[in-house]
Write a structure and sequence with these properties.
By secondary structure, the chain is α+β, with helices and mostly antiparallel strands. It has helices at about 1-5, 25-40; strands at about 50-55, 60, 75-80, 100-105. It contains two helices and four strands, in the order ααββββ. The strands form two sheets. It has a two-stranded antiparallel ribbon. The chain is elongated. It starts with a helix and ends in a 31-residue tail after the last strand.
């Protein structure tokens, strides 16, 4: 409210309602309204795709993002591939552990008959991509 006044905006605050403990009367009205709508079959709970913001640790609507408006969740296909050749430092584990890699594809129909999956070289100093082996 103070920020609006500081910017010189003229707002009719008589119609301002807050659905929190600060306005218990209005909050109880909104709760009553949603209960009646749900009982009447007018609203229901369900699942839908949402964009998650790791920066804010919460869901964000399309207009909440500074960039990427109009971007929707995209469906990928996860493909599990067995690793046939291992680096020398992992050769001793071949008898006890099955090594697999998960790759993503937007076009899974192109994966049929694939014989190779190349990964770029890596190092631990962070200059290039770094891959690790994780036990799952």
């Amino acid at each position: 409210k103070e920020d609006m006044h500081a910017m010189g905006l003229k707002v009719d605050w008589r119609r301002s309602f807050i659905t929190t403990n600060y306005s218990a009367f209005y909050d109880s009205f909104i709760r009553w309204q949603f209960v009646r709508l749900r009982e009447g079959g007018r609203i229901k709970f369900g699942k839908r795709y949402s964009i998650y913001s790791p920066l804010d640790s919460q869901m964000c609507a399309d207009h909440d993002r500074a960039t990427g408006e109009g971007v929707c969740p995209q469906e990928y296909t996860l493909i599990k591939m067995r690793l046939m050749e291992l680096p020398p430092e992992l050769q001793g584990l071949r008898e006890r552990v099955r090594f697999e890699s998960c790759v993503l594809s937007l076009r899974p129909e192109t994966m049929y008959g694939q014989t190779n999956c190349w990964a770029p070289p890596h190092d631990s100093d962070g200059k290039t991509l770094y891959y690790g082996v994780y036990k799952t």
